[in-house]
Amino acid sequence: MALLPLHPPSVVVGFAVIVLGLSAALTSTTEKYLDGYFKFAALAIATSVLTLLTLPLMIALEITQSGAAFTSKIMVELPWLSILWVLWLATGSDGAQAAQTVFLADCSDYIPKIKAACQETSAIQAFSFLNWLILMAYTIFVLVLAIIAQTRQHTGVWSSSVATAPFFTPGAASAPTTSQPVDAPAASYGPSTVSAGGYETQHVVHSASASQGGTGPAFARTLASKTPTFSLPASMDALFVPLAEAVGASVDQLKLIICLLVAYPLGSLFIRIPSSQPVLKHLFNLGITMLFFFPVLHLYGAFAQLLASVLATFYITKYYHSSAMPWVVFAVVMGHLTVNHIIRSIFQFSYETLEVTGPQMVLVMKLTTFAWNVHDGRRRAEDLDKWQTAKRVTQFPSLLEFLGYSFYFPGILVGPYLDFVDYMDLINETLFKKLAVKGKNGRNVPSGRKRVAYRKMFFGLAYLGVFCGLCSHMELRHRSLSVVRGTKYAHPGRSISVLWGNGTHEILCGLDSYGGASLGPLRRFAVSDCEPQGASILTGLGFTGMGPSGETTWDGAANVDPLNIELAPNFKVLLDSWNMKTNVWLRECVYKRVTPKGKKPGFRSSMITFGTSAFWHGIAGGYYLTFVTGGFITTISRLARANIRPLLLPAPGASPSIAKRIYDMLGTLITILLLNFAAAPFMLLGVNDSIVAWARLGFYGYIIIGGSMAFFYAGGTKGLRRLQAKQASKMVKPEAVPTPVNEKQFMIPPSLDQIIPPQK
């Protein structure tokens, strides 16, 4: 048995003792009052006894005989542990089915004896699934290590014990070092595991030659895992290194992209599981997520942390019925995320590093939304609004259902986030059945999924291909360091990219200055928004009905609107088109919830929501510089729209004037300019680096902002309103209606004109 931190089989033994006691108590109760017993309880007793008869003996023999016992051999241990985790999975699944069949209401709604039986059933179910997850993860982990050791031409791998196997010993076929001489002509990335501050970390090495403007090897520490401190050989990552060098990406980024692309064929497999087998769908989600996190991404500790948040949320929402329950969940999961943000800041991870906070940010949205949905399910229907009524959870899920929801594989790494009701509609194909949708071969799933999904995939790949093909040399971190250190631009003319650097524009120009600061977010958008959206659509998520020509539409999983990001006519349209799912979460789980009942949301609600958004993103000062700058940009955008735009609107039925077209073009150009300026701190993270970078750009963004605000607050607003009054008979006067709550933006602070309006 493996002598690894946390010793997984020993934990299973402890849980088996608990399950045995609970199952015996439940069986005693049912035989006394119901003159019978539950089949799942009998299976739980049998599985617990089998576990307790074998695992302690195997552990003892390994310790006393130093791995020489027959039962310690990998070829014996793995098959037996696999049999055990199948039995534990069957126990948990039968328990979940029995709980749904027998205990229709919440456990607290029964008399004491039945309540106790209900709670015992839930606990048996929970510990059975935990034992399944622990044993399955352990067997997969050991199997991967054994296969890698075998490929390195080690002998006797399968006949040795886990404790003595040459898992971490270099073999004849070990991978060559990924380091690169300083004078090498191309950049290289390679991982090497080190220990820092009690965390298992990796140094991702990036070398660039002097001819490329590089400064030699640069190191960015990446958090591989917290405890347990497992470490896979670098040889597996070495498989990705040549491709990473070819496309100009880090190994972490490349592995993320591969996971997102692999989700496409897996999505097609997922939807072929019949809706009559929901357990298989939940297990499919769990299995694929573990495949991503363990052998591919090596994020063992990250998965353990996510699982801890999931289990904490499950039991808090299940057993704590106070009105404060959602806020308790919010505090637990947001506090956990903030701790990891602090760790990320201490280790100074770059934005290219893949670690726990990315998936955790998505999970925080899902878990807090679930808590509010459960809370709404316990409230009176007349006290709820339309969204709360549609998303409320009235029947508490089984642990397996909740794990499947939490670890929904197309969205686990970077989103999209979905609520529990939509997930169960996806599992049961409820939405398709309600709309009487008929697809091919008599299935309920509507046709057209693949057309939309693969269009998303190809769009994202094309965007990424253009970036990698033309701008692989534009590594933002090194460019930012050059800017901060005062390095001269390679070519003076390239500084023009500050005028037109929003993604493809900078790429097509081949520019290399700092101006294209939004390139990083755009690259992330291309992969982390388009790719998972397409994979989600293949699983059946996001169906929004039929279009005007009879084609199916799949906009429910969308998180961005690409065209309105690239060519937004104003800043509000840009914000409305970016991170749309995050805005829904902030609106429904914070903005509305912090507003006292019977009152309208105001400045206080907006600031609390903005603060939540800021902490959710992280604690780096660069985030806050971007958000505050965004608030000022929104202010001048609102003032321009309210005071200048009405003067240029055509008369009813007339075509837009040349002046209106020029206004629209200038609005798009200024939006791109200000986006690039405001996005710089979001990528650099550090306050000092951000200020120095802005200084190198001449603070042009704040010159535009300051000049505009000075104009509007120094009498410009009053003068423009007079012009509007003079032209009132010719103008189209827009209706002065407040922004609906479902169109409000919460990722930036309230605009200044809402607090201190200019004189009109």
Summarize this structure as a short list of keywords or feature phrases:
mainly alpha; 3-stranded antiparallel sheet; two-stranded antiparallel sheet; 30 helices; LPLAT_7/PORCN-like; acyltransferase; 1-acylglycerophosphocholine O-acyltransferase activity
Write the layout of secondary structure elements.
Layout: H1 8-33, H2 39-65, H3 74-102, H4 112-151, E1 188-196, E2 199-207, E3 218-225, H5 234-238, H6 241-247, H7 251-270, H8 278-296, H9 300-319, H10 325-347, H11 357-377, H12 386-391, H13 399-406, H14 420-428, H15 430-434, H16 449-471, H17 476-485, H18 504-509, H19 519-528, H20 530-539, E4 545-546, E5 552-553, H21 562-566, H22 571-576, H23 580-591, H24 603-617, H25 621-643, H26 645-648, H27 658-684, H28 687-696, H29 700-726, H30 752-755
Helix pairs in contact: 1-2, 1-4, 2-3, 3-4, 7-8, 7-20, 8-13, 9-10, 9-11, 9-13, 10-11, 11-23, 16-19, 16-20, 17-28, 19-20, 23-24, 25-27, 25-29, 27-28
Describe the structure.
It is built from 30 helices and 5 strands. With 760 residues, it is mostly helical. A 3-stranded antiparallel sheet has the order 1-2-3. A two-stranded antiparallel ribbon has the order 4-5. Helix 9 packs across helix 13 and helix 11 crosses helix 23 (580-591). It is a multi-pass membrane protein.
User: How many helices in DSSP terms?
Assistant: 30
Q: How many strand units?
A: 5
State the helical fraction. 55-70%
- Give, in spatial order, the strands making up the sheet with the most strands: 1-2-3
Question: Which residue ranges are poorly predicted, with pLDDT under 50 across at least 5 consecutive positions?
Answer: 1-6, 173-235, 472-523
Portion in strands: under 5%
Cα(first) to Cα(last) distance is: 78 Å
Nearest-integer average pLDDT: 76
Structural class computed from helices and strand pairing: mainly alpha
Task: Tell me, briefly, the overall form.
Answer: globular
What is the radius of gyration computed over CA atoms, rounded to a whole number of angstroms? 29 Å
Described by strand count, sense and barrel closure, the largest sheet is: 3 strands, antiparallel
